[in-house]
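Data availability (excerpt). The following record was deposited with the supplementary files.
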Amino acid sequence: MAGKNGIYILYRKSVNEDGTESINPVGRFALHGGNISVLEDRDGLVESIFPPGPMTSRELMRMHQMEDGRNPYLELVLEQDIQEGHRDDLVEELNLGGSEWPKPDGE
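Predicted structure:
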């Protein structure tokens, strides 16, 4: 998948105090025709790792490392994979608000 045209989301992985793992998005960039365009960058991390402009072998290597789990702190995911349901672990549960449904009578 690395080097494929599309929009990529960069996630930061961390361990919470209770020992559970969390993964949070830090930004997005587009790759099209071998060029990188930063779309979102919350703290400058995306642009420091994937600078805008032509993609080099360095950025391609970083993409491979972040996609296959070799980086313990960062994960890179193609947005299309989330939309197609390949990464259910990154889809937050939808909260429509309101209260729970009342139980039917007799329960």
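Summary of structural features: The mean pLDDT is 87.
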